[in-house]
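Q&A log
Question type: sequence-to-structure
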Amino acid sequence: MFKKFAVLFYSIFVLNLVSAQHGEAGSATTELSEKDKVSKENKEFIDHHLLDAHDFTLMVDKEGHHIGFPLPVIFYDNGIHAFMSSKEGFMHGEPTEVDGNFYKLHHEKIYKTDAKGTLAEDKEGHVTSEKILDLSITKSVLIILLTSIFMFVLFTGMARSYKKSQVPTGAARFLEPLVIFVRDEIAIPNIGHKYKRFIGYLLTVFFFILFLNVLGLMPFGINVTGNITMTFFLAILTYLITTFSANKDYWLHIFWMPGVPVPMKLIMLPIELLGTITKPFALMIRLFANMTAGHIVVMSLIGLIYVFKNFVAGVAFPFLTLVIYLLEVLVAFLQAYIFTMLSALFIGMAVQEHEHEHHAAH
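Response status: OK
Response body:
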């Protein structure tokens, strides 16, 4: 939803700027049409960048051909079906026959269709055709798998190096300060003496988000942490660990708060229960919104160069893009830190021991 509003805002902004310049006849009308066309192409390009994809595109040549490699398309429809996304017509939204049935890729979602590729739509233009269970190795899934393997090899090698010498070597020289930072500045202050039970998860989620955020700044259209499904499951992990690690004091303060009048307890109970859900929801939205917004701003600034096509735009917008891009590098680290810190805070609230001495006095 946030992504749609941000892209819509960009489109309105560009169209308003174009309309403001429209006051002349003749050639001005042609110029407006051209800018409208460029603005539409920019919006489509941003949409394509933000969406997941069933192929991996490295670049686009002058003729508009995508240069990259296909990925496995796997889905369930009365059995498991699989083929490569390079199958004729599939990536171009044409109906693809698989075992006697036809399927069509529409906005990176696979629908069951007929031989003509007809998709049923409602009054608002939303597709109502049967959407099948997609288990494909998409671009985001591929990056997640590669990042996981990379982290496993990297930190396994880092652990082995400490068996030989306590002096860090290789990648450990750069990673050890970050590991110590997560332990001393995030885990211990928020969780306390029980931090060792959760430090493995905190380190994993910190470096996992950090690496994905950095990869998202690469020019290959990798936008994993800008996918709300990804941030949803990261938040769910924190929620599950918090819930199943919580002690009786944590649940007591949610269901029957000590020292609070009974009528207030009944009022606060649903509020506290709702709070257990809003915490992971905040984790999910914060990471998704910040990373998605950064991508939209950077790509919008680049797109404005092609909208205005003048010397000022050619100088100003690349400079602004560079500034925002450098800011995004900071945001990549900052969002990994915030997600990890809030996860540690929620876990710490669930496992800390509460004092009830003032109740024993009554």
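Response note: The two ends are 52 Å apart (CA to CA).
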